[in-house]
């Protein structure tokens, strides 16, 4: 923990939904939900207007619709999210060389390298306030919540305290006072299972947790987790800002319209996914030691299993064999809605097989008739389109051979709504122009 509140956490507010509201004037101030729009979709982000109705990230779209049926349910436009994220990360890197992106919409910044005259609370507060204004400027109106503290943990907690569009600075020496009344789930890694285990032991708040000895925490949740909880309950966190966060894993998964029950079909799908993962590894000159599978059952229970090799591999056959083997340990008789294969523990080298154990590399993958995946239709709600006469707009809805479009952009007022046959030759998907960097890539 530092002597000054020199670690800053910035979190763009309701990011995906905010970008949609920015680019679609008719949705400003209204509930917006971004994610899968089908019956098996999952909410990625909900605007604050939708959150008032209990809609939240990771909720099923079906439940979100029941809670807020009048919301706009949109699929993602990742080109728009990437553009906004790139603008923010570029800005952050211009003020400090130590920026650690956690995702498209949040990052840590080390202000010790920001060239400030000092790191006292008034100075870092003024800097953070100015930074929030610059974020809004480069994103054309998006807001960010910012927290500053003496550690990454405290900065992250602080950024959540005054959302949206807030700024909270935790002065040095006040960290424990801030944390003690909070529920234990404020601590990273305390999910539902750990929280329930702690609850059974009578531990509800950080103050309760602070009173528990290290040995008891290790007994309750294991050595690594218990040690981490012991220190974080006391606001002890010395993690540094790491400017380069390399990919930790490569994975492929699919969600299916109909629950899978045929084990041979599942094995075939895992084999195909293993091939896609291996191809991506080889394309980027990577290999990995740990192969994992992800299985979501018919009742939304998600299971995962993994196996670690002695040395990294990019072999399709090896990854597929391990994935199929991991599946044998799971009871899938009730039906499977999602399957996925991943490889982690990445390296940039391959250990040659000295014993020639590569006979299965030449195996032909089994032929499988892949079941229909859940994927968006040609005209997905929210996607950008362009009409030869009306100009640019976005898909309001589609079905029964008709697509309805609202014609507006971020720079225009709320526009008119028109419906067209889905095969109308004057209507096409709109894509942003390719940049010089993309052309070079």
UniProtKB/TrEMBL annotation:
Pfam families: IMS, IMS_C, IMS_HHH_1
Compartments, record wording: Cytoplasm
Coiled-coil annotated residue ranges, if any: none
Residue ranges occupied by any UmuC domain in the UniProt entry: 7-191
Catalysed reaction equations from the record: DNA(n) + a 2'-deoxyribonucleoside 5'-triphosphate = DNA(n+1) + diphosphate
Residue numbers annotated as active site: 106
Binding site for Mg(2+): 11, 105
Site residues (Substrate discrimination), renumbered to this chain: 16
GO cellular component, one term: cytosol
Listed cofactors: Mg(2+)
SUPFAM superfamilies registered for this protein in UniProt: DNA/RNA polymerases, Lesion bypass DNA polymerase (Y-family), little finger domain
Single Gene Ontology MF annotation: DNA-directed DNA polymerase activity
Major localization listed first in the record, in broad terms: cytoplasm
Region (Disordered): 410-441
Superkingdom of the source species: Bacteria
Keyword presence, DNA-binding: yes
Assigned keywords, A-Z: Cytoplasm, DNA damage, DNA repair, DNA replication, DNA-binding, DNA-directed DNA polymerase, Magnesium, Metal-binding, Mutator protein, Nucleotidyltransferase, Transferase
Cited function: Poorly processive, error-prone DNA polymerase involved in untargeted mutagenesis. Copies undamaged DNA at stalled replication forks, which arise in vivo from mismatched or misaligned primer ends. These misaligned primers can be extended by PolIV. Exhibits no 3'-5' exonuclease (proofreading) activity. May be involved in translesional synthesis, in conjunction with the beta clamp from PolIII.
Subunit structure: Monomer.
Family the entry assigns: Belongs to the DNA polymerase type-Y family.
Record's protein name: DNA polymerase IV
Species whose genome carries this gene: Nocardioides ginsengisegetis
């Amino acid at each position: 923990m530092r002597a000054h509140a020199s670690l800053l956490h910035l979190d763009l507010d309701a990011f995906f939904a905010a970008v949609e509201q920015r680019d679609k004037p008719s949705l400003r101030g209204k509930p917006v939900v971004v994610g899968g729009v089908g019956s098996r979709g999952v909410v990625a982000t909900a605007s604050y207007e939708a959150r008032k109705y209990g809609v939240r990230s990771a909720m099923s779209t079906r439940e979100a619709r029941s809670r807020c049926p009048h919301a706009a349910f949109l699929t993602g436009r990742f080109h728009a999210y990437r553009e906004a994220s790139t603008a923010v990360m570029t800005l952050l890197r211009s003020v400090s060389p130590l920026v650690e992106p956690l995702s498209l919409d949040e990052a840590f910044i080390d202000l010790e390298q920001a060239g400030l005259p000092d790191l006292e609370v008034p100075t870092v507060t003024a800097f953070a306030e100015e930074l929030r204004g610059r974020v809004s400027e480069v994103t054309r109106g998006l807001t960010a919540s910012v927290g500053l503290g003496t550690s990454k943990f405290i900065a992250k907690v602080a950024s959540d305290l005054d959302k949206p569009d807030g700024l909270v600075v935790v002065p040095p020496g006040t960290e424990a006072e801030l944390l003690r009344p909070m529920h234990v789930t404020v601590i990273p890694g305390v999910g539902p299972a750990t929280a329930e285990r702690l609850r059974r032991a009578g531990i509800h708040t950080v103050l309760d947790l602070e009173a528990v000895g290290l040995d008891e925490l290790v007994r309750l949740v294991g050595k690594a987790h218990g040690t981490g909880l012991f220190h974080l309950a006391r606001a002890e966190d010395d993690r540094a800002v790491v400017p380069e966060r390399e990919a930790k894993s490569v994975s492929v998964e699919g969600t299916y319209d109909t629950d899978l029950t045929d084990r041979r079909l599942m094995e075939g799908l895992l084999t195909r996914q293993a091939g896609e993962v291996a191809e991506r590894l080889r394309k980027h000159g990577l290999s990995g030691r740990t192969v994992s599978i992800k299985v979501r059952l018919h009742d939304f229970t998600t299971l995962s299993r993994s196996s670690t090799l002695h040395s990294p591999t990019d072999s399709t056959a090896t990854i597929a064999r391990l994935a199929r083997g991991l599946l044998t340990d799971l009871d899938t008789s009730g039906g499977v809605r999602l399957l996925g294969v991943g490889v982690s523990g990445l390296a940039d080298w391959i250990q040659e097989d000295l014993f020639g154990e590569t006979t299965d590399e030449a195996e032909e993958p089994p032929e499988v008739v892949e079941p229909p995946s859940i994927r968006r239709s040609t005209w997905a709600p929210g996607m950008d389109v362009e009409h030869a006469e009306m100009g640019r707009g976005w898909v309001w809805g589609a079905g029964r051979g008709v697509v309805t479009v609202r014609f507006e952009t971020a720079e225009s007022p709320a526009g008119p709504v028109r419906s067209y046959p889905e095969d109308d030759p004057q209507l096409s998907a709109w894509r942003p122009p390719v940049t010089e960097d993309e052309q070079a890539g």
